[in-house]
């Protein structure tokens, strides 16, 4: 996933209505093999941008989502 695609993905996840929808999006992204180092670099940059902008609600939410992606990705690797 390139930067623009990752930014669109971030918006989709941040706009998700509930945690189950977030998990579905994350699982589909991992299953499709779209999580790469560049994906995490973009997540990190966007998290830092939100922090610098003072958008604490979205910053906290995106940080939680990034952690969830990392954990789900690791769990998938361990189970394969």
- One letter per element, helices H and strands E, the order comes to HHHH
Query: How many β-strand runs?
Result: 0
CA radius of gyration is 12 Å
Spans where pLDDT lies below 50 across 5 or more residues = none
Helix vs. strand class: mainly alpha
Mean pLDDT: 92
Indicate how many domains the architecture comprises.
1
Note the main sheet.
none
Beta-strand content: under 5%
Shape descriptor reads globular
Span between termini: 22 Å
What would you note in describing this structure?
The protein is mainly alpha-helical and 80 residues long. It has one domain. The chain has 4 helices and no strands. The longest helix has 24 residues, at 56-79. The mean pLDDT is 92.
Question: Briefly, what is this?
Answer:
The protein is mainly α and 80 residues long.
Summarize this structure as a short list of keywords or feature phrases:
single chain, 80 residues, mainly alpha, 4 helices, globular
């Amino acid at each position: 996933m390139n930067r623009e695609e990752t930014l669109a993905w971030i918006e989709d996840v941040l706009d998700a209505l509930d945690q189950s929808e977030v998990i579905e999006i994350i699982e589909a992204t991992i299953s499709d093999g779209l999580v790469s180092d560049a994906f995490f670099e973009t997540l990190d940059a966007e998290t830092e941008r939100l922090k610098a902008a003072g958008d604490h609600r979205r910053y906290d939410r995106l940080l939680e989502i990034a952690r969830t992606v990392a954990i789900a990705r690791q769990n998938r690797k361990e189970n394969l």
